[in-house]
Design goal:
Strand content: 25-35%
Shape: elongated
Length: 437
């Protein structure tokens, strides 16, 4: 009985507590009034369009080749009796340096015989001239009626003998000249400043005319053959066939293991014919003193090196440079109007690669382009501009980031051509697909 009263009391207490909690929840319920929704503008970063005169660099790749490559061969026969210390593969020689000497004794003997023959022919000619003078005086003493034909007079005055003596003297002098040339040919000299690329003869070896002695390459100037796609020729100053009067400046560089080296070059000429398979026009760049013989502090550019090239483009007016990622399908981008609303805009762009696009039509100075990627459903929406920069500042930033950096103090202090300083950034690649306007 007592237990039942206790249970009833606990049940009453629990019910009272539940009622109290229910009352508190009801009293603290939120207001049933419907609040108006608040619109929060989308935040964007913008670039202010600035039309510039921009030089779009064209990037290409090629292999360094020598301007001249010559195979030296023997012009006379004989045994090699002397070899220069520089006559080794990789050795540098100056124009006129003696590389080899072939045994000259036979040619010295031939020279003495030729000199003797010349002296003998001169003596014979002098004798014939004296005889001719004597015959002329005797001819003049003959009676007038005894003088016969002109042929008889020529024989009497010894003109055939005199002409024969003169011809023999000419032949002797020709033999003397040949003997001197053969003696001179026994000394093999470098025809120009060169590097010995290969050698095929050695001390004591017997050589005959036509025997290969060495292969040499010039070191004063080197060349790089650069392929330019047909669609990018309009970005370069190509006045026509032949040598360019003032070739565009080129920045050649290599990046091996993170070590970047630069060399200055100039566009020298084009080959004038499109390659039938790749549809590219090959242009040729020249590099002065590639082995840095005149400037030992500079890094040499060896023949056979595969290099990248940034070719300075021609000046193109009224271009706006923008990051490539702001472009949408169909060459569309977002423009923020004066009311801070998004407007879809179709523009025309130049074909180029790299991280930048160059708008040639569709944007005016001062218009704001959204740098923030947005969905197409936000067209006409109000936006809030967080930050603003000019397109020229963006171009310079991308240009600086895109250029390969020299990793040594010496490389950083080298003269970098205007293709790397003054051109509008954009890493054009000859092999990269183009984005067409």
């Amino acid at each position: 009985m007592a237990l039942s009263k206790k249970q009833a009391f606990l049940s009453f207490v629990m019910l009272a507590a539940a009622l109290a909690v229910t009352f508190l929840l009801y009293a603290s319920r939120p207001s049933t009034e419907i609040a108006e929704p608040k619109y929060v503008p989308v935040t964007v970063d913008v670039a202010t369009a600035v039309k510039e005169v921009i030089r779009i660099p064209v990037q290409a790749q090629g292999t360094v080749t020598p301007l001249r490559s010559t195979r030296l061969v023997a012009e006379v026969a004989g045994r090699i009796t002397e070899v220069s210390d520089a006559f080794n593969v990789g050795g540098f020689v100056a124009a006129g340096d003696v590389l080899l000497r072939i045994d000259p004794r036979d040619y010295q003997t031939a020279l003495l015989r030729a000199q003797s023959a010349v002296a003998s022919a001169e003596s014979l000619l002098a004798q014939e001239k004296g005889r001719a003078q004597v015959a002329e005086r005797e001819w003049k003493k003959l009676p007038a009626g005894s003088q016969r034909s002109d042929e008889a007079k020529a024989l009497y005055l010894r003109q055939p003998q005199l002409e024969q003596a003169e011809a023999e003297l000419l032949a002797a002098r020709a033999d003397l000249s040949t003997a001197r040339d053969n003696l001179e040919r026994s000394v093999i000299r470098a025809p120009y400043d060169a590097l010995i690329n290969a050698k095929s003869a050695e001390l004591g070896q017997y050589v005959s005319p036509g025997s290969a002695l060495a292969d040499i390459i010039s070191v004063d100037v080197a060349e790089v053959r650069l392929p330019i796609p047909q669609g990018k020729l309009e970005y370069l100053e190509l006045p026509g066939l032949g040598v360019y009067p003032q070739g565009a400046e080129i920045d050649l560089y290599t990046d091996v293991g993170g070590v970047v080296n630069h060399w200055a070059a100039q566009l020298h000429r084009s080959e004038g014919v499109f390659d039938e398979r790749s549809r590219v026009l090959y242009t040729v760049a020249r590099i002065e003193d590639p082995y840095a013989l005149q400037d030992p502090q500079r890094e040499p550019l060896r023949v056979g090196t595969f290099v990248n090239a940034n070719i300075r483009g021609r000046a193109l007016p009224d271009l706006v440079a923008l990051p490539r990622y702001v472009m949408r399908a169909g060459n569309h981008l977002w423009v923020v109007d004066g009311d801070n609303r998004l407007r879809d805009r179709e523009v025309s762009i130049l074909r180029t690669g790299g991280d930048l696009v160059y708008v040639s039509a569709g944007l005016e100075d001062g218009e704001r382009v959204s740098l923030t990627s947005l969905d197409t459903s936000l067209a006409g929406s109000e936006v809030e501009v967080v930050s603003s920069r000019s397109s020229a500042q963006l171009r310079q930033q991308y240009q600086t980031d895109a250029l390969p950096k020299a990793t040594t103090v010496e490389a950083a202090q080298r003269d970098t051509p205007a293709a790397a300083r003054d051109s509008a950034a954009g890493r054009d690649s000859a092999a990269a697909p183009d984005a067409e306007a």
